[in-house]
What does this fold into?
Amino acid sequence: MFEFEIDAIDEATGARNGRFHTPHGILQTPVFAPVGTQATVKALRPSDLRDLGATLVLSNTYHLYLRPGDELIRDLGGLHQFMGWSGPILTDSGGFQVFSLSDTRKIDDDGVTFQSHLDGSYHHFTPEKSVAIQENLGADIIMTFDECPPPNDYDYVKQSLRRTHAWAERCVQAKTRDDQALFGIVQGGIFPDLREASARFLLDLDLPGYAIGGLAVGESKAEMAATLDGLNPILPQDKPRYLMGVGAPEDVVNGVLRGVDIFDCVLPTRIARNGAALVKGERLNLRNAQFQRDPAPIDAACICYTCTHFSRAYLRHLVKANEILGHILLTMHNIHFLLNLVRQMRQAIHDGNLEEFARDFLSSYPPLTPSKEGT
Amino acid sequence: MFEFEIDAIDEATGARNGRFHTPHGILQTPVFAPVGTQATVKALRPSDLRDLGATLVLSNTYHLYLRPGDELIRDLGGLHQFMGWSGPILTDSGGFQVFSLSDTRKIDDDGVTFQSHLDGSYHHFTPEKSVAIQENLGADIIMTFDECPPPNDYDYVKQSLRRTHAWAERCVQAKTRDDQALFGIVQGGIFPDLREASARFLLDLDLPGYAIGGLAVGESKAEMAATLDGLNPILPQDKPRYLMGVGAPEDVVNGVLRGVDIFDCVLPTRIARNGAALVKGERLNLRNAQFQRDPAPIDAACICYTCTHFSRAYLRHLVKANEILGHILLTMHNIHFLLNLVRQMRQAIHDGNLEEFARDFLSSYPPLTPSKEGT
It folds into this structure.
């Protein structure tokens, strides 16, 4: 269980094409996980996800704990059964969401007290509580409870690491199920020495996988790349690496080039509901008047259901009229875009031409400059 | 074109099982048409409709005229191409929607002036304009422009009939396409003499089908049934009969028992988005706390995707969390319920046991009483 087999490594970059074994199936890596925050990837059925080629779905501990409740989900057979997804699932620890509630949460070494965004009720998460919830949910991959600090404040990040590491140890202690892989989360902001210290601490815990947390939270794309470059030689070759919350297409490519195996992000589903479609190098805003009478699909080369059946003019109409079908069709296209991107990278690693593929793909995006321009 | 072949007639009731030929396929009758107000059946893809067994889809002239515009749809290849539905389509005339704008419309013998619900702009519909829009849209079945008066005011209904009939004649004159069937709409409120007069006037126009309008607008179910009983022997056997805007399951059964062939209604899709699921005899409100931990499907005997994959507990969670997937899954179930109902009735007519089927089905609903209890 939780074996990570590497089938091919790109010599130049260290990018890997592998297979991670989970109780609900094998993940071919690099893999992108659509996000099903509330036990549903918004606007898609499980059969759609399967047809699109999704293998891993992420769901959120914070949201499911509040509604419908992790014990209810446990009593109904666990999250796979509850949401009708028989493939692998990953749950986050709830930490990121809780820390995002910046106005209402209080943190100490025991854990975090926060107010529900639903009804204002008070709750307390600890590492032990996070693991217990995630065991009730029953995902294949679960995460340690960590603090996700602002990435640019050296002193705060350093202090925070002490807590994050102690919490990781408590999660390991609290864990009771052996059919779930507990991944550790490397923190350390944009500071190479702190990232290295965090990685080395967690490596000593000998976990089945390692996540890189605290990125895509305001640092520049160059800082994200530098952080990944710093961790690439430190993280073990034989464990999967998961870059949390990253899903902009160029970030996924840059992540794979730096040894990342697993990605998740709400980006493709969220921008779909705002009327935006991913194409190489840009996001088409279907609200734009230029598409009003455009008979072309979003992308003539795309083989997704949306692009093989509908015009930009029709999609614009759906978006303007706020029709659910607009959310559905753009979500399908955007998820297909990312799943196809990682599929192409798996093939490129296998074929030994990842750099060529990445160079071509990234030529449509701004270069990684070391400025602090943000993401 | 537009031939109506009757394969079987139920001797006791006159209910018919037939085939109506249209340019985009054959409609097996009785048929229920899901409503795609804005060129989309809300929450469903065309492939879903096909998989559910839908054959006829209704779309709304008023809405499509305002947005995205009937000329735009024409220029993009017509409504079938625009919305990706290759089966038969029916468009209403816009009359019902325009008359529903009771505060902002003005009617005279020429037509109706009204304000858009989108931006308050002024527009004028005439019979000629309605036909021109419907020709731009390009549906297989189009409707005459009529007035839909309050059903209980004898004097007003009688006056209104004069106008509705003159408008029907103008629609016939205005029509230029021979690949669209123009159906006439029988009005007359709840008054048998006015209904008969309206039917006889329209029969003289020798149209390829006849609709019964102005029902399900506040009269009792008994009044609806009496009106259908009155028209059953008057409307021609060899033309399809369309009961507009009716889709409560018991009303569909009562309609078929009184010779109706075609139904449409927003009910299954609208109540789905409110969290309600159709089962025989009732509507399950999935918001109810009783379903919180219910592992059963909506209906254990139902073979739809929703019932074969998801629990009431999960559906309740989706509805409470206002997830799009809740709309999708309940819409699929409710559309399946109505399509399966007419499928069963086609079979029952064919097998000669419609009365038995209807008696059993209607035993789950309140009887038709002649009180004015409303619908």
